């Protein structure tokens, strides 16, 4: 195999989901809901499948989905984007991230990203030839260390890869943090690639603020999201990016040769979903918040130290109060030991900066997904009692 993928191994999500399936464990590892999204959205996809929308979509996405994405950005954030030149549909947010990095970053360019980071970031930065500059969010509150961010910028830095709400920590960037990032990006003329797939999952009344809404940022930000998270159709892999035409064009320059276009019949269905009434979005957030509370309380009862997330589908815990210290070992044995699967934070820290697990800040941290039905969460908590 090539040096481009050297050391990347197998994604932790595949490893843990295979282990969960083999052992019959309750899977709180990989983040996917155990309930499908709205039936009427499925019906739209069925209509499209039966209605002959089965050939290639335009490379940028079907017009009604691009229009719906633009309308969504305007409705929720007041962001105005041209559906013809400033919106592109991708095969999940994953392809948007991949094609953005391939289309915007030269080998040797430095890219700053918030660590712990979603595992495809490491892989795609490596494949694009970029030099990774992680800035670490640390327990217990996972705030952005602004001075460290500023210190990470060098003359070779070209982009910041952001993620808010943040997977795996569950933190949501605050207005003053976004302002600080914006000031740095403007001062050094950096592009910001902002992964906002959990934009509709912020809790306790917090609001998601796209960094593109800050002064001077719309012209330098590519904002990425996905129908998978917001509408519970993770398997459809319909994502998108919005931003100035020059950034969208550069991303499309790569995307056209990766997949050319993304699944035609699913696009009109996601377009319909994006137009849902406000109640859909508020109910969705409320349901996930209640599941968050249930799982946080259960994990606390089990004896773990719980860092209550401000957003996303995930809660992070420290396993040391139960006498464990290595999250990777813990997660590899948890399905056999307790019949539950979870994800170790360790794998979300930069392999170059933390080559040994001893100096990995994520070593004692474990991530649990709460995008599961209350009875499933109950069952997981009951099973975890054997740890106490
Ligand atoms: N970014 C983050 C932060 C995620 O958690 C995920 C989860 N799947 C993705 C991107 C990928 O999204 P998609 O499934 O739409 O490719
Ligand atoms: N984003 C989800 C997670 O973090 C799913 C990831 C995946 O399967 N690649 O769990």
TrEMBL record:
Cofactor(s) required for function per UniProt: pyridoxal 5'-phosphate
Keyword field: Aminotransferase, Pyridoxal phosphate, Transferase
Pfam annotation, one family: Aminotran_1_2
Any one GO molecular function term: kynurenine-oxoglutarate transaminase activity
InterPro entries in alphabetical order: Aminotransferase_I/II_large (IPR004839), Kynurenine-oxoglutarate_AT (IPR051326), PyrdxlP-dep_Trfase (IPR015424), PyrdxlP-dep_Trfase_major (IPR015421), PyrdxlP-dep_Trfase_small (IPR015422)
Domain of life: Bacteria
Domain Aminotransferase class I/classII large: 26-349
Cellular component annotations (GO), alphabetically ordered: cytoplasm
Family affiliation: Belongs to the class-I pyridoxal-phosphate-dependent aminotransferase family.
Designated name of the protein: Pyridoxal phosphate-dependent aminotransferase
Lineage: Bacteria, Bacillati, Actinomycetota, Actinomycetes, Propionibacteriales
